[in-house]
Amino acid sequence: MRHLLGRVINRELGRMLKERTFFFITFLGPLFAFFIVSWIFSSGVPRDLPVAVVDLDHTSLSRKVAQMVDATSIAAVDRSYISLEEARIALKEGKADAVIYIPKDAEKDILKGQNAKIALYLNNANVITGGLLNSGIRKAIATLSAGISLHSHLQSGETENQAISKVLPVQLRSVLLFNPFTSYAYFLTILLLPVMLTVFTLFGTIYAVGTELQYGTGKDWLGTSDNNITIALVGKILPYTFFYCLVAVFMNLDFFYVLGLPLKGSIFTILISELLLILSYQSMAIVLITLTKNLRLALSLASAYTMLAITYAGFTFPFMAMPEIGWIFSRIFPIVYWVQIFVGQSVRTEPIANGISQMYYLWGFIILGFLFIPRLKYLLKNEKYWGKI
Amino acid sequence: MLKKLLMFLNDTAHVFTSELKEPFLDAGALLMFIIAMIAYPVAYSIGYVKETVRDIPVAVVDMDHTALSRQYSRMADATEQVKILCKSGSLNEAEQLFYSGKVDGIVLIPDKFEKNVLSGKQTNITVYCDAGHLLLYKQVFAANSYASGMLNAGIVVRNLMAKGKSMNQSLVTREPLEVETYNLFNPSGGYGTFVVPSILLIVIQQTLVIGIGLLFGKNYEKRKNKHFIEMLSRMGRSVSIVVGKSFAYIFVYLFTTLFLLGFFYRWLHFPDKNSFLEVYYLLIPFLFAVAFMGIAIGVLFRKRVQPLLFIVFISPTVYFLSGASWPVQALPGLLRGISYILPTTPMIDAFFKLRICGADLHSLSFEWNMLCIQMIVYFALACLAIKFGLKDKPLSETESDGVTVETK
Fold first, then answer.
1. Cα B33 to Cα B211: distance, rounded to the nearest angstrom
2. A58: distance to nearest CA of chain B, Å?
3. Does the domain spanning B56-174 belong to CATH 1.10.8.280?
4. Measuring CA to CA, which residue among B169, B174, B178 is closest to residue B153?
5. Which of A207, A318, A383 sits opposite B309 (nearest CB)?
6. How would you label B56-90 residue by residue, b for 16+ Cβ within 10 Å and e otherwise?
7. Which of A38, A132, A355, B238 is such that its CA lies 20 to 30 A from the CA of B273?
8. Residue B283 neighbours by CB under 8 Å, 6+ apart
9. What angle do CA A128, A133, A138 make, to 5 degrees?
10. Closest CA to B316 of A252, A316, A344
11. Sequence ranges of the domains in chain B
């Protein structure tokens, strides 16, 4: 048994060394992908988005508004716009992401005891920057407004504490769980790095098995294990499992050391889940190649299968807001379960039991692959299915 | 001279007509050029059709049990963003609900809430939300800041009026500076409107490049380049091949893009502030830039599967490099520069400005010039690649990667 397994592994390593493609899909590709993704999100949060301030008031108040907004990390104020029309065109053309319009006599109105209206125009085509600018700018102006209000209360002889409670009787505090930096980058990398891992796992395994069909070397492969398909398959897949586990280790290093993700739960559970994730995708590789009997078609489907998972992981857009069919569709991607385990263990400090219950689904995918093994053996032995790419 | 030119055109036309059939003769190329172009966008859009997240379930932990605390719960419940799923007696209980995924936020109203407000002491409301999911966090927070704003305004105005000020005066004293927000271009903050247009353009670029690569891989595998290599012996024929091939692929893509960016785009009710004619003004240089890029890369492929193995994994990064989703200001400068090797980078930018924001064509000159530069550079690269890179599989190489003989 062990002797046969060794022979198959040996044969596979030989194949891997002969073709540079294998080097790319097991090593170079994943590292390159990780590098690019980490690089894109390396600056973390968007900063200093261009905001046009149209100041028709030209008073200390209007300058104060511009200063307060400029002082936020999200906005960088440009005061060179002289009319609202000009600023709105800049907004359309993407030269500014928001426009703040301070009308004439704003300060005078406040001194007179009337309130001044400031208009904020946002480019909401990008909902991420639109949302960040909205909350950032509104908060800055509200602080200024409260300051003015507080000032008038203080002038009427109240103590500061009294005045504060009169201006803002109920304060809203928010406790951010799990993503203290409210960083979009942070949570996109949690999704994108493992997606890259699964792309290469699926492609690598499909390529390894599919090329046997394409070159018609299935008999030779089976012969190495004395026609025992299970040993043949295990021996073939094991080297890849090993390489992708190494990639996963890299991924974890990137997560916890480079990106500084918290690790509140059990690292052991995370590692096990990553192994199961890799095995699930290897198993789906067997399913795809057996169903299509065609290397290229299997790879095409694999592309769709891995790329669509980004949308259906419910990470960028929650499941709750998807139509029923979208939710059902999302169940076919192993990575969707894995993300739950990972987020639960790394940032949410969920009980380990939650993670384990998600793992059952991953086992389901692995078992599915086993069901296709007899069919794969038949394909490998049948000349009719060879040479198709 | 004229005769030479005619022969040149004749060769080009010949490449065009023969290449036009190619995508339809190869199942893999057909899958990329036609089926993927339709299936991907549909599959992606299903996830985003609902655009926004409404009625997010939250739990309220009311330690106060007074009229004011109940008023707050009602105010929060009345917002479109959240719905109060339940009122739980303790924070622990609410946390259980949160971890089991039944609620996505917790609102804590403290003890002595009403009493503090009435006696003029500042009190607070605490919102616990999962910032690991930014869209949910944004909505839960927005709902509560709206509700607390309303509650505050009511209390302050009531207090001031009790002191004998008029309603109007009270409103002014409360908030001297008022901000009115106008959300332009995507007023409802729809996530689909934000994501799907870029995905469509990326699908166009990636399928075209992969499809072209596939055809080059096939020609090499099946020794079909002989004909082109013969042609290359005549002067300037690398241009004929590049022009003939790219026109053929773009011809197919004119139909599929019309479906995707015309019908499909409208069917999803995305903002459409300019006519489709103006989209073509961008689309033509974009498609040429992509096709030339595809040819320049495609020459390198020796097998049909290689473009899939080498190009697919890039796709998600293309999306974040384009600047449509992840703001340009947050991209490292060098990376932003590098991203301009991709036609999608200027294209997605220009597409958003044109169709979603409604900018004029002349304001897109930077992006358009960029696309034209890419088109010219990739044209030159494609010609060079064809001239020096187009090879026929040597006859001696009957083995595929030294494994065994190909059977077909």
1. 6
2. 16
3. no
4. B174
5. A207
6. bbbbbbbebebebbbebbebbbebebbbbbebbee
7. A132
8. B257, B261
9. 135
10. A316
11. 2-49+190-389, 56-174
Long-range contacts of B88-94 (CB under 8 A, 24+ apart): B88/B59, B88/B60, B88/B61, B89/B61, B90/B61, B91/B61, B93/B61, B94/B59, B94/B61
Q: How far is B244 from chain A (nearest CA, A)?
A: 26
Burial of A353 (0-12, 13-18, 19+ CB in 10 A): exposed
Residue of B nearest to A48 (CA): B329
Do strands A98-102 and A116-123 pair parallel, antiparallel, or not at all (unpaired)?
antiparallel
Structure confidence by residue, pLDDT tens digits, B79-127 = 888 888 877 778 888 888 887 778 888 888 888 888 888 887 888 888 8
Q: CA of A145: which chain B residue's CA is closest?
A: B177
Chain-chain contact of A37 with B317 (C-beta, under 8 angstroms): yes
Cα Rg, chain B, nearest whole Å: 30
Tokens of A80: 């060179």
**Residue matched to tokens 């009493």:** B115
Is B146 in the A-facing interface, judged by CB distances under 8 Å?
Answer: no
Give residues 127 to 146 of A whose Cβ lies within 8 Å of B. 127-131, 134-135, 137-138, 141-142, 144-145
- Cα separation, B266 vs B272, in Å, equals 8
Q: Which two tokens stand for residue B267?
A: 């069917």
pLDDT digits (tens, 9 = 90+) for A24-68: 999 999 999 999 988 888 876 778 888 999 888 888 888 888 888
CB contact under 8 Å between B317 and A310, yes or no, is: no
Q: Which domains does chain A have, with CATH numbers?
A: 2-42+181-385 (no CATH), 49-167 (3.40.1710.10)
Q: Could you list the mean pLDDT of each consecutive 10-residue stretch along chain A, which spans 389 residues?
A: 84 89 91 90 79 87 87 85 87 86 84 81 82 83 81 77 73 65 72 93 93 86 87 92 94 86 84 95 94 89 90 78 83 91 80 84 93 89 73
Q: Are A355 and A346 in contact (CB under 8 A)?
A: no
Within 8 A of B308 by CB-CB distance, chain A residues are 203, 296, 299-300, 303
Asked whether the beta carbons of B343 and B373 are under 8 A apart, the reply is no
Q: Decide if A328 touches B, using CB distance below 8 A.
A: no
Is the separation of the CB atoms in A116 and A130 below 8 Å?
no
Q: Does A264 touch chain B (CB under 8 A)?
A: no
Say which residue the tokens 């009169």 belong to. Answer: A166
Residue B317 sits at the chain A interface (C-beta within 8 Å): yes
Chain A residues near residue B91 by CB distance under 8 angstroms: none
